[in-house]
Amino acid sequence: MKNIFLAFSFLFFVVVSFASSEKKPFVIPELQSWTGAEGDLSLDNTLTIAYESTKSDDKKMRSVVSQFSADLKTMFGVQAETTTGKANFVVKMAPIAVDNKEGYEIEIGEQVVISANEPIGALWATKTILQMLEATEGKSLPKGKIVDYPEYPLRGFMLDVGRKFFTIDFLRDYVHFMSYYKMNTFHIHLSDNGFRQYFGNDWDETYAAFRLESDTYPGLAAKDGYYTKQEFIDLQILAEENGITIVPEIDIPAHTLAFTQYMPELGSEEYGMDHLDLFNPKTYEFFDKLFKEYLDGKEPVFRGEYVHIGTDEYSNKDKKVVEKFRYFQDHYIKEVEKYGKKAGVWGSLTHAQGETPVKVEDVLLDCWYNGYADPKAMIDLGYDMVSIPDGLVYIVPAAGYYYDYLNIAHLYKNWTPATIGNQVFEENHPQIKGGKFAVWNDHCGNGITEKDVHHRVFPAMQTLAVKMWTGKNTSLPFDEFNKQRLAISEAPGLNINATYKADENGVVLERENLAAGDTLPIPEIGYNYRVEFTIRAKNNINSTVLFESPNATVYLRHPKTGKLAYEREGYWSEFDYVVPNDYPVVLAIEGTNTGTKLFVNGQLVDALENEFIEYNQSGKSKMAKIQTLVFPLAKVGDFEGAISDFTVKVLK
User: Fold this and answer.
1) What's the predicted TM-score (pTM) here?
2) Which of the residues in the chain have pLDDT under 70?
3) Does the CA dihedral 191-458-635-587 come out positive or negative?
4) Domains defined for the chain, CATH in brackets
5) What is the reported pLDDT for 85?
6) What is the C-alpha separation between 301 and 287, in angstroms, rounded?
7) Annotated active-site positions, please?
8) Are strands 89-93 and 112-116 parallel, antiparallel or unpaired?
9) pLDDT value at position 575?
10) Which of 143, 172, 327, 611 is most buried by a 10 A CB count?
């Protein structure tokens, strides 16, 4: 096999200090093994990097090295060039102490040597180095040796885009975000519907969406947001380059209102229009063609190994229906396999016990609720499983059930994928391939935004990345982990939470004066913040913009009422206050993850808190109205007047 040396040029300057490096560097997920040595390796503004690879892996290794170079530039401003000579960073394919395809070793001495069994291990090693460099702002690395590998091969996150649309840019950001934490499976739930009680108990009015362009069924994709087939293909390619497999899900035969609204004859009269009629031949004709559209051909739309077909929460009241449900699941497992893929399913066979055989071999079962699929029974049947217990790892934003924010303390101290509901298995059970956590956007239209969802996901991603990679081998107490995790960024160049460093007084940004059209150096400020300024407005009309960014707009005058207001992702909120003309007032807006407050001349005038609205008289149909605001700062609007003493602060 031929070794190829490429380099990334960065001139690298080494300074040996005499501080001890015995303490394990803090990264997420935690390293399996660290052997410290004396001294640090100090970095100058330029470095040299080389890689060694077999011919078959050259393309992938070249991608790893190129991405590492770009990330160093993005994060620390370190210039990368290419060289074929002696290098200070060496990334090579070479056997390591652990037989694990994602494992790697890093030796930090007079140079940094990364060794990995496969290119994916080399990629994860670069993420570790980047996180280590965050601690010194790119200036140095502690000397020592790392041996690292995952306890579980599947480490995943599921996002419900069916009931809330997330832009393709958000999904692309999440590929980078997940990759930075070595999470390797992105499950995208492409279809679903809201609950009928929130829409006047009318199926025709109930929100439902399928998010992928279809040529077979024009108009099937949701009008308020969908992905073109090319966008989805490109997303999967990006994911592959970042060590991630995307698992697309078309959820059938329940949660299917988007399809029955498109073709009503597919719906079940007995169980509701969010259930397919399993006895109607047109149901099978429709979905056979839909799966074929995304799976057929040399370059299919769904590129990965697995395609998820849903198959849960269908009625089990009638034995005849149960047997037909089992037939349906078996049919679509085999339909997916017909195109060379493997099927992912939600566990349901404890709920749907019957005689009709359902294929088990090479099917990956997401075990979410033991009443639907008893884990021990499913293992006995022969399933490979993913641990995704609803009572531990389900986020349903602002719904009042499951978790708004996961209990990361409990998960860090007690959970690994070996725990599924109330059943605990041996670690590294051969049939438990790993774990996932999920965001379900059950309450359609409740005002939750991409920013709000991410605020919930970020601490969960950091915590569960540890528990799926490092397993029970964590060494830090939770309180220490919870403190130190805040110092690790989301990913190179990524700041969805819009957090920025503040001075000793909490000040992030100050301007003596601002005028219409001015731009600011940060696009927005996330929770928890206070934006304060003096404004003297003149004769402004309704719809006048005060501040704007790509994600939100603050209006000096609401389009209809003329009150101070804001809009994000199509959701509007207004304060019970009209900014006066021709004399100055001091306005301060405070934003947290639970609402937004307005102060005028130091006095609280209005608090737009997240509140629950009752949709009927049963007491069982409350939905939150979310009124948060990540404050837009990218540009000052075209208003008449002047702003002075402008300050952005972080609240403690």
Assistant:
1) 0.95
2) 1-21, 82-85, 616-620
3) positive
4) 6-148 (3.30.379.10), 154-487 (3.20.20.80), 507-650 (2.60.120.200)
5) 66
6) 16
7) 313
8) parallel
9) 98
10) 143
